[in-house]
Amino acid sequence: MTIACPTATDVKRANRRLYDAVADGYEVVDGRRNEALAQWIRGRLSRLADAHGCGRLLDLGSGSGVVTREGRGLFDQTIALDLSPAILAEAGDIADARVAADTDALPIADASVDVVTCFAVLHHLFDAAGLVREVARVLKPGGVFWSDHDMDLTFYNRFRWPLRVYRRLRAADVKYVRASTDIDAETYALAEFREDGVDGSRVMGQLRDARLRPEAKFHWFGLTGLTNSLFGERSSARGWAPLLSITAVRE
Q1: Position 146 in a domain
Q2: Chain centre to alpha carbon of residue 112
Q3: What is the pLDDT of residues 157-172, one digit of tens each?
Q4: What is the number of other CB atoms lying within 10 angstroms of the CB of residue 6?
């Protein structure tokens, strides 16, 4: 049955159900993690550690550990946090600590984290307000929040028709539904609640309200080998690159 007016709870339940269901084969089903992306993430983390502290890295929505694995050796402690206990268990030794928890209620002490990361996570949320509130609470003064690899809403609105063709050809929804009998089309749609784009302006406003200083950039790196070759790591104007990247420093 389709949920006519989904709530934040519906979206969270769908995310846990989906990632619990594919925990033992997530990397294969997703099919987008590769060495070039891993090295790019490590470069970003290295720069963040140098600028904002290398004590503790907290990765929200860690999944199979693409961020925390690259944080090893750069931070004194890495923490992988995810809503799905199953994916954390299957991921194994991806961090110094693995925590199954909701991003709206982090079991982390106030002002105890140097860098909080959030990779391809915002589009899974009903709303980012709770995550932003908790990020502001756990970051040390001068600490930084980095979110990346969510579809930008302005880009989607500008290129919605070619994007719909691309998504039909890629058929990610079909892959996930076929991966487990516990996943249906509704579960996938709720888990990808903001698949059509994250409103970066809204998130930036929420970060400012929480007394963080945010900066947004838009890029292509990490989508495919072809786009990496064509666009590299350079930033584009809003609406001309699909990936929203936000860094926000705690005052």
Answers
A1: yes
A2: 21
A3: 999 999 999 999 989 9
A4: 16
